[in-house]
Write a structure and sequence with these properties.
The protein is mostly helical. It has 15 helices and no strands. The N terminus and C terminus are likely disordered.
Amino acid sequence: MSASGVNGRRTEEAISKHHALSITNGEVNFLWWFIQGSIMNSDTWARLMNSYGFCERHAWIHLSIETSFRDRFLLGPTILYQGLLDKALHSMRPPRISAYSRIRDLRATDACMLCAMNIPESPAVMAPASRLDRGRDVGALRRFVSGLETLWRGYLCNLCHTQKSNVHIETLCRRHLLSHMRQRKALNIAGQRELLNGLYEGVTRYQNSLAAGGKAASDQDRAALIGAIGWCSGWRPLLAMLGSAATGLIDVELCEH
């Protein structure tokens, strides 16, 4: 089974057990080191750009680890998602009128880095129990997203939320957008571009606020980061954690290849 297939199974199991993320000690240990600055490695950055960040499950695990150890000082995620949104906006700008060119530029061309590593559930080296306990606890993530829920709900993918084919489509995540493009369904590309522009501007303001002397970020800016993660990777694990998950699961292979 492919790494994405294994992760899809883990996501399905996690949602069915009402434990949306099921973070392992191995993932905590790896991501604790990762958030120390690995994103600035050129090879890592290229891999993340090619894979549009992380898979659905690991995207929210990454944010959970960041909030557990960094609280709201989320410099790494703002840098990452500013880059991914810039890439997505480039593919949506006129005069790109070819659906194929949009599909080509919006799909991931590499697997989720963490899935591909197949990280053991237990770390290979000894890690402090306090670090592992803190990293597995999704309380910081829950507090962060719950306090901003009224703001990020406007970015929520309709199909991640309902999984109903007859729902009125206004907002789609990247993977559902790709699925609709492949099926040649009618889409409001201008509306998608407006959504991405808003997310990009908010994430950029959040990032700038973290620099010395930067203007404080607003709650809307922080909500834009949540929206960016949901748009790039999907919303279901977050919704499951909050108790509002859709019952159906999108095929992880369908929209990427």
